[in-house]
Design goal:
Length: 185
Amino acid sequence: MYIIAGLGNPGKEYEGTRHNVGFMVIDALSKKLGIEVSRLKFKSLMGEGHFKGEKVILLKPQTFMNLSGEALYDAVDFYKIPLENVIVVYDDKDLEVGKIRIRRKGSSGGHNGMNSIIYLLNSEDFPRVRIGIGKPEDGDLVRHVLGRFSEEEKKVIDEAVERAAEAVIDIMENGIEHAMSRFNG
């Protein structure tokens, strides 16, 4: 069984923002896996289905980014799932726009959603797929992460979202080492 959580902020005003690339990947996975993400459970929009005989839960936490751990903790606790089968997808300002980085575990890197998850799960030992959103040119991080991509960036991000969805599928199908060697560039 796998739980895949894409981080973002709920609400129309945040759709398409840099901070919501995790939600975008869940939407892509929803299409690829045929899992509708529409039920409210675990403080999230949730969908469940199967992939190659494994149960898969897709989550889009509705707690706002800084409290993402509340939603993920509730799901992990309910299903009693090992953390190596929890995959978190989120934006990373320290990667150039569209770059993907998969890791088996690690710190939050200053990402508030990840701080919340690590704190509530009491562990850094779970896979993550980060998607680069680049650094703010003017140094205003809040405006940057809550801002939208330029037309040029949007094309790169759309491709990155598809690649990140493929990376999550590869993790489930072939393991994290395989996905890291295939998608980390």
